[in-house]
Design brief:
The chain is α/β, with parallel strands linked by helices. 46% of the residues lie in helices and 14% in strands. The protein contains 13 helices and eight strands. The chain has helices at 2-19, 57-65, 86-96, 117-129, 151-162, 178-194, 197-200, 219-224, 237-246, 268-282, 287-310, 316-335, 346-365; strands spanning 43-50, 73-79, 103-107, 135-141, 145-147, 166-172, 214-218, 251-261. An eight-stranded mixed sheet has the order 3-2-1-4-7-6-8-5, sandwiched between helices. The protein is globular. The N and C termini lie far apart (51 Å).
Length: 392
């Protein structure tokens, strides 16, 4: 029986490495030494939804105002009922750059039923931005993202060259603390498994995904896809937007070191909160999908090393499955400049993510699904999206 399971795990890893869109390769990247020159650079407005982001928003605003971009660029920050000095720090950053006129700070309206917080903020920002007739692209970015001075040129050049309606890059996340080194590369690795970037970038393939920290969106395509209203209740809003837009035109997703998140997770608790907020939504709130996901993680990541240990090295198939697992994890470790030996911890890290996924389901069932920054933002038993946590 053990040997048979070992053969199954080997077959799975052979498929993963050879036939699942090369998901484990950290490429292509949205970095060009010389962006394609354009006769005229189209207008762009960056939309930043921000709730309690005083710690990072100043650097985000400064990085956008320092863009080496020949076209018109404005910024709309939507202060989503922050309880700190988010709006004031954003204004100070713009004033320090000498470009206060390019920043508009909107005071967000209270969250209505049926909306998640980020999407409600984005809707308000989009409505304000679309008053400018010259606008062709919206840059949806988070308040903890710092953009290299040429990153916008790269994004727009690619969109214009390939007629992409969505160009998105996976920001380089903070990976300094022990907890971040354990969890961040694996988080990206699992995302790639779900949404192989090569499949995302093929117009003839149904797979669609985006990285919400940095998304350049064509305004006409967004309107054709139904606008932000069509997404109002989505927890994983970036991938939902990608699915809508891929029906309109080609999309592209890649990696870039020029786009970085400066949010530090520090310990395990903040990463757990991030995962539990959305994991069950990824499974479409289905107990059956949850069971299959747990079983799949056990077979793919936990079974091979356990079989190697129990068989005392006599299960060649499990040995090869472990080897393929270690090899597949190496590119993302190199991207984050970590030792190849971190791959040995992948089964334990996968077990941790499996526990968090189960916790995500339990939170949803208890009425605290999608809890983030003081809000419950997920349907439970058919109740509306949005609102304050129960019992508080």
């Amino acid at each position: 029986m053990i040997l048979a399971v070992g053969c199954v795990t080997l077959a799975i890893w052979m498929y993963m490495v050879a036939a699942r869109g090369g998901f484990w390769r950290v490429s292509p990247r949205a970095e060009f030494d010389a962006p394609t020159p354009l006769a005229a650079w189209p207008g762009v407005t960056a939309i930043i939804p921000a709730r309690d982001e005083a710690e990072t928003v100043g650097r985000t605003i400064a990085s956008l105002l320092q863009q080496d971009y020949p076209g018109a660029l404005n910024i709309v920050l939507v202060d989503d009922c922050s309880r700190d000095a988010t709006a004031e720090i954003a204004r100070q950053a713009a004033a320090a750059s000498g470009m206060s006129t390019r920043l508009t700070v909107l005071r967000g309206q209270p969250l209505p039923s049926g909306w998640t917080g980020k999407l409600w903020a984005l809707k308000q920002g989009v409505e304000a931005a679309l008053r400018d007739a010259w606008l062709k692209y919206l840059l949806f970015t988070d308040a903890d993202i710092v953009h290299g001075e040429k990153s916008l040129r790269d994004l727009v050049a690619r969109a214009e060259r390939d007629n992409d309606v969505l160009v998105s890059v996976m920001a380089e996340l903070c990976c300094k603390s022990f907890a971040e080194r354990c969890t961040v590369p694996a988080f990206i690795f699992f995302f790639q498994m779900l949404y192989p970037f090569r499949w995302v970038n093929r117009p003839d393939h149904a797979t669609a995904a985006a990285a919400g920290g940095c998304m350049l969106v064509n305004t006409e395509a967004l309107h054709a896809a139904g606008g932000i209203d069509a997404l109002r209740g989505e927890i994983i809003d970036d991938c939902a937007l990608a699915r809508k837009l891929k029906r309109v035109g080609p999309i592209w997703l890649g990696f870039s070191r020029r786009v970085r998140s400066i949010r530090s997770y520090g310990g395990f608790a903040p990463v757990r909160e991030m995962v539990t907020r959305s994991a069950y939504a990824e499974l479409r709130f289905s107990p059956l999908r949850l069971c299959l996901a747990v079983l799949g993680m056990a077979i793919v990541f936990l079974a091979p090393p356990l079989i190697v240990i129990l068989s005392a090295g006599r299960a060649v198939a499990a040995d090869l499955a472990c080897l393929l697992m270690l090899i597949a994890f190496q590119p993302i470790l190199r991207f984050y400049r970590l030792s190849p030996l971190w791959a040995l911890a992948l089964p334990a890290i996968a077990a941790l993510y499996t526990v968090w996924t189960v916790q995500s389901a339990l939170q949803y069932r208890s009425g605290r699904g999608g809890f983030w920054k003081g809000r419950v933002q997920a349907p439970v038993g058919g109740s509306p999206v949005g609102g304050e946590p129960r019992g508080r």
